[in-house]
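INFO batch 0412 | record 1 of 1 | parsing
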Amino acid sequence: MTAAETGIRIELKNVLLLTDFSEPSESALRFAATIARQYGAELHALHVLVPRPLLYTSPEAMAGIAAMEEAAACEMQRVDSQLAGVSHETTTMRAPDVWTAVEQAVAASNADLLVLGTHGRTGLQKLMLGSVAEEVFRKATVPVLTIGPHVRGGAHGGGRFHRVLYATDFSAEAKAAAPYALSLAQEAQAQLVLLHVMTTSGENGARGAAASSIADAMHKLLELAPEEAKLWCRPEPVVQYGQVAERILEEARGRKADLVVLGVRAPEGPVALATHTPRSVAYRVVANAPCPVLTVRA
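INFO prediction complete | emitting tokens
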């Protein structure tokens, strides 16, 4: 990727907020509202009702669905009041699953960015219950900003990013995320940390190979940022060794990052079964990051 390609400044005209009215969704709402104000974007708030099939089998069950919809409408009124001063609309949709509704809403709203909170379930709990957040950020064709359970309330300026951490393995997916990291850093005049994690020391541990690998990675990192980026985002290349997710989280905590930016792959098979595969690196970061995580699919 050339400097010209990464120098593109992104525009956000429509932001889609997915909410289930939980505490993580409340945090996501604050970030979505701040971003919408900054970019002059329209904010579309969506809540999805997913009734169990058995609820349709009796009049009593149908009354239960009506009660769910009434409760959701009341919660949406509260969301509406919290978005006073932001150009917005609210929608409650009934669908067989969350992703079906999100996919339709992204298309209908012409969304440029999707924002949601997650409870950060991992391990067996995630395998059994699935992960709405991971399904969304792996399937969505627009960038997804996920606010995990470890993002402190009121921290990170509620959407004002002063230190952006962009992690890359130099894949096509990672390169697709680079313009967003650069553009958001430019928008906020933020420091930009360019991180590459090497899983082995010098490819088989040889000292000379290690130095060569580090030098090559540093060169690739510096190439990602155009020369003029030094005027507004202070890019800093960093190469680390170790487990990828753990090193990304370590850097995010140690540098007090306000935002982590990652490229992600499309799902291969059921998303819930990716818990113990390399594809779950992004989810482990999302679930444990001290700051929001922006994921971008190639």
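INFO post-check: The longest helix spans residues 59-82.
INFO record closed
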